[in-house]
Amino acid sequence: MDHPQAPAVPRPATPRPDMPITTTAPPVKRERRWSVVALCVVLAVVAGLGSAAAVNAAGDRTKVLAIARDVPAGQALTDADVTVAEVSSDAALMPMPGSEKTSVVGKRPVVDLRKGGLLTASQLRAGTGLGDDQQQVGIQVKRGQAPDGTLSAGDKVLAVTVPAQGEQPAKGSAAAPETLPGTVVSVSRPDASGTVVVNVAVSTDDGPTLASRAAAGRIALVREPRSK
To answer: What average pLDDT does range 128-146 have in this prediction?
Structure first.
């Protein structure tokens, strides 16, 4: 019995060894991200401008007068009290130019000057307003003889004459203690015992009297209201 033969299946053509094998694929289309490129350019420009501004700011400096050490109001400035410093220009600051250092020596500030601050013209005047035309008396004030830590230059005070040590007021005496008006020029730093020296400006008629009583330790100071 004869079996039917299956139809022949054609074999795939085998490439010859000498023929190159090629493959074809669709080309990859690269999209240019123009927005990213533009952003990079903008950032580079901004960075460049910022660097230029920083360089200009660093170079835009000026010499001004600064306080080299603490100076109380009313005390004449010395050459060692003032120094020349370089700061960046700022319209909000109005320090005196460094070239005026010589001209401020000998002048008296109307406010306390603190080390490291800049010196301005408003802190100095031709007259300090603190008794330039009056006599000044230094009064050594112990604890309890003046308001603790509240006196400052410009304060109006009454120099009150107190009884001498061991002196008893007359019996039945209702007379008010004698007082002399004055203006505080400066106050020293307290020593270990808390004692300070207060320079007070008074009239030429009261200067000798106040000096005599202050030397005897018979003066206490009363600060007048600052609203007066």
So the answer is: 81
Pairing mode of beta strands 156-161, 219-223? antiparallel
Comparing CA positions, the residue from 209, 219, 97, 216 lying closest to residue 146 is 219
pLDDT digit string, tens, across residues 186-204: 888 888 888 889 999 999 9
Residue 196: how many CB atoms within 10 A of its CB? 20
Three-state SS string over 165-219 comes to CCCCCCCCCCCCCCEEEEEEEEECCCCCCCCEEEEEEECCCCHHHHHHHHHCCCE
User: Following CA atoms 204, 227, 117, 59 in sequence, which dihedral angle do they give, to the nearest 10 degrees?
Assistant: -120
Residues contacting 201, CB < 8 A, separation 6+:
130, 131, 134, 135, 136, 182, 183, 184, 185
pTM of the model as a whole: 0.49
Alpha-carbon 46 to chain mean position: 33
Identify the CA nearest to 188 among candidates 225, 118, 138.
138
Helix (H, G, I), strand (E, B) or coil at 98: helix
Q: Which residues, in sequence order, are CB contacts of 68 under 8 Å at separation 6+?
A: 80, 81, 82, 83, 115
Q: How far apart are CA 77 and CA 106, in angstroms?
A: 5
Q: Give the C-alpha distances (Å, rounded to integers) separating 221 from 168, 185, 213.
A: 20, 13, 12
d(CA 49, CA 44): 9
Summarised one tens digit per residue, pLDDT across range 146-179 is 888 778 888 899 999 988 776 666 665 567 789 9
